[in-house]
# Entry
Amino acid sequence: MSKKILIFDMDGVLLKPIGYHRALKETVRLGAQALGYEGITLSDAEIAQFEGLGISSEWHSSAACMALLALNGEISLPPLFDSLKREPAQDHARLRLEMAIQHLANETGADPAHAISIIRDSQSIDHSPTLNLFQEMILGSGDYKRIYGKKGNLDVESFLFQFDQPLLGADVRNRLLAWLKDPEHGGVVMTNRPSRRMPDAHYGLQLVGLEGFPLVGYGEIEWLAEEVGENTTSLAKPSPVHALAASHMAFGKAMDTSMLDAYASLNGGGADVIGYLEGSEIWVFEDTPAGLISVGEMEKLLFGRGISVHVNKIGIARTPHKGEYLQAQGARIFEGVDLALDEIF
# Structure
């Protein structure tokens, strides 16, 4: 019997990320206010367009808004979105944003140096004001101080626990867990949420009722990058490394071993640990293109090593605009993960 693997993104698939979106809006508002701009807001439609274009981390999208302010004194998103569409979808989000800002600067004759530095520092807790604002809201002031050793300025409870809502129904969750009891069936969450040293991804599993479910988050990718001397952005989805490590985790392989084996496979090694995937059928559930690309690139990598798998790309979208981006990656579109899973079970 061939193996069957379900790979789930977290935000927008298993969870409605109200906390993340609310924190993003507040980060942009407060960040702009600190620079002397009042009344700056970010709409739900604009957030959906960021995500549809593969800018799914609020660390990046909030920094992009501040970069636009630095570049031209306003947050005019349509030109940025048009510029992003011209960048290769396979490239990492931060690098695509840097190039998009460079192109906008070229068109207007502005100096892009400061704006690009805002994007480049978007993941640095020591240099990015937007990251600090966002993380305090996401973690809550108590965990923010405990994890980063910083006092914070907001005195808030975690936005994730306050506002996030599960999208996976209790009945479908129970059917999923029953389906996974078959030793030939595997399931895993593949997310760019912070993890390992950070609680974001585990907050999500707790809220959706999947505590202990296999998970490969951004923290695991950071760990791997440190181990092998690579840049983190080159290993996270849309890289095939993220998807291959998730596939290993789906069948109970140890976290660190899964990460190292996935990296070895990318570089021509690991033949003795990927053969078990031969003939596997894989479903990937995503609401942004990055995870679809990651699994698609994994399929190509395995094919190049003589291993055939069949990938089913499932796009979760509640708006036609977002669905178009997912369809462009070859996904079938469903309004919710419960409806998609009904076809499998």
The mean pLDDT is 94. The chain is about 55% helix and 10% strand. Residues 53 and 325 are 7 Å apart (CA to CA).
